[in-house]
Amino acid sequence: MTEARIRHFYDEPTGTLSYVVDDQRSDRAAVIDCVLGYNLSSGRTDPRPSDVVIDYVREHGLTVDWILETHAHADHLSGAQYIKSKLGGEVAIGEGIRDVQAHFAPIFNCGKGFAADGRQFDRLFADGEVFRIGELDCEVIATPGHTNDSISYRIGSAVFVGDSLFMPDFGTARCDFPGGDAGLLYDSIRRLLSLPENTRLFMCHDYMPGGRELRWECTVAEQRRDNIHASDGVSKDAFEGMRSERDATLNLPALIVPAIQVNIRAGHMPDADDNGIVYLKTPVDTL
Fold first, then answer.
1. For residue 16, how far is the Cα from the chain centroid?
2. Domain contains 22
3. pLDDT tens across 10-19, in order?
4. pLDDT tens, 55-109?
5. What is the C-alpha separation between 224 and 213, in angstroms, rounded?
6. CB burial class (10 A; 0-12, 13-18, 19+) of residue 234?
């Protein structure tokens, strides 16, 4: 089996890991979980987290076929449309995005022009679906629990797990967002950890607990042995109890309000108002 070349990129303000995955035989590539910077105080976007990805793609002569999201992120704005405008490619996410859109569209009063059917994306993936990056087969694995649109991408011996798992010393994702379910997340994690022990798992975030160096990759065997929340031997009941107790102590992500509005639109901003200015709404006493 030919393996993909994988390059990680780290956005320090949001702790987010993005990836370029390419088939070196065809120079076709995918970008996974890309970031558009955003200043919450000024409302200004910053393309630099995506620009470094674009520079890498161009430097290596790659053609981007896919811009892949593991879910509609709540902690950063997607750079999908910015990257698509520079490099092309189809923007894709799991079909559960429809449920996420249906929940948040009324909260942000998206209006009659917003369709909660996923049409903002170029492709919606179902569990078990297979697509290609050049000559590489890519399998979609539904991994709900953190959110109900969460999916992972299996490409050769590598799996991009989104927020379902963190590095073993940080554990697992929260489950208190709309559509989140700790029991579903437990089942999703066990599904991932049933893959061969040498399977390489790539994280979407790393928060470097204890001040250790950045890490973005580990194996199934490491997670099964060392994950502080979900190692072998942790029961579903124990996991659900831990997540319920822990999630009750967590604040909402700093960028959740702008991020959700952009990310349910596949990285598009809302339409400008009649004065030509784009606004991101903040619901009061709602979230």
1. 9
2. yes
3. 999 999 999 9
4. 999 999 999 999 999 999 999 999 999 999 999 999 999 999 999 999 999 999 9
5. 21
6. middle
Print the domain residue range for 75: 5-263
Q: Is 47 exposed, middle or buried (0-12, 13-18, 19+ CB in 10 A)?
A: middle
Residue 111 covered by a domain = yes
Count the neighbouring beta carbons within 10 Å of the beta carbon of residue 98. 18
Burial label, 117 (beta-carbon count in 10 A; 0-12, 13-18, 19+): exposed
Q: What is the CATH number of the domain that holds 94?
A: 3.60.15.10
- Dist CA 196 CA 31 (whole Å): 25
pTM of the entire structure? Answer: 0.97
Instruction: Round to whole Å and give the CA distance between 144 and 171.
Output: 16
Instruction: Express the helix, strand and coil content of the chain in percent, nearest 5 each.
Output: 25, 25, 50
Give the separation between CA 55 and CA 246, rounded to whole angstroms.
39
Overall number of domains in the chain: 1
Q: Name residue 77's beta-bridge partners.
A: 36
User: Do residues 81 and 256 make contact, with C-beta atoms less than 8 angstroms apart?
Assistant: no
Say how far apart CA 269 and CA 175 lie, in whole Å. Answer: 26
Task: Give the containing element (helix H, strand E) for 182.
Answer: helix 182-193
Q: Is residue 279 part of a domain?
A: no
Separation between Cα atoms, residue 98 and residue 264, nearest integer Å: 9
- Asked if residue 103 lies in contact with residue 129, where contact means CB atoms within 8 angstroms, the answer is no
Residue 62 lies in a domain: yes
Pick from 11, 31, 33: which is nearest to 20 by CA?
31
